[in-house]
Amino acid sequence: MGKVWNFTAGPCMLPPEVMQQAQAEFCDYAGTGIGIIESSHRSKEFDEIAKNSEQLLRELLKIPDNYRVLFMQSGGRGQFAAVPLNLLSENGVCDYFVTGHWSRQAYKECHERFGNAVLHECAQRNSRGIYSVDYAQMRLSPQSEYAYVCFNETVNGLELFELPDLGSVPLVADMSSNILTRSIDVSRFGAIVFGVQKNVAPAGLVIAIVREDLLGHSRKYCPSILDWTVMNQYDSLFNTPCTFSWYMAYLVFKWIKNLGGVEALEKRNIQKARLLYEYLDSTSFYNSVIDPKDRSRVNVVFTLKNDVLNNKFLSEAKEHGLIGLKGHKVLGGMRASIYNAMPLEGVQALVDFMQDFAKANG
Prior knowledge:
The protein has 362 residues and is α/β, with parallel strands linked by helices. It is built from nine helices and 16 strands.
């Protein structure tokens, strides 16, 4: 098969340059004679990777000194539990601003297992079937100890471009799918958590950026592996970490810095998203059901004029080297994930195919 463009939502496309470097170092890292995947997490070589990757991430996101950066296992779903276990007191109250599938899953984890989670429905559908974010619903309950948002709903194609003003109450954000795709002010958040399998590295690693005053409040029965305070005390090496994913994250952080940082990637991501959305808006063959002001820059969801064409679209797209376009099982339709590693060329190839398919099947 010729050139393949990978639009899968995650695990997803990684920068080719990073993949090639990892391939070259797979069997012999830094002249050690062994691959990084074999190297001890206590070795000098991995210690350098760990320290340098944290420093690079701090630089890229401009993370203030009073935030701790934790490299953990458990994935995003593990952090659904870690957040209340670390921040919610036994009889405390917290708020979940639900805008789609993943914020709802986080709410359910807290509500069903830890209690006192208040659900706020913050995505609405108008009479024309268009979904948008209702920021007015992002209100705090009395004595709320934290509020939770998913900054980009991978399944639904909604992204937050505003932040609620919560005063002193910490805002916790899941940024698994749009971390490092746009500039953010870390100081606006109490904690940011993200699985790395969208924009950073292979699956297996989750990173938590936590304001230091929020450490030390975990429940007694919080598993040590999910306890942010424990992981901070051990410099994220309380257990044997996912060393390969951590190493790959390090390579991607270097790649981002060499490209010009998050600011440069944000400009590219805006250009890619505009190209695809402008085509969707120009045709009745495809349909986007997200309000333009709330459209995700990295997960573009759309439907065809009828469901009969779905399988044909996916089959022919694959023949043209365009894979991973099937929408999530919750919503169906199509989804093009155009994360940091996807170049403009790949999005243009998708638009060209979509135009040809529409002409042939219109």
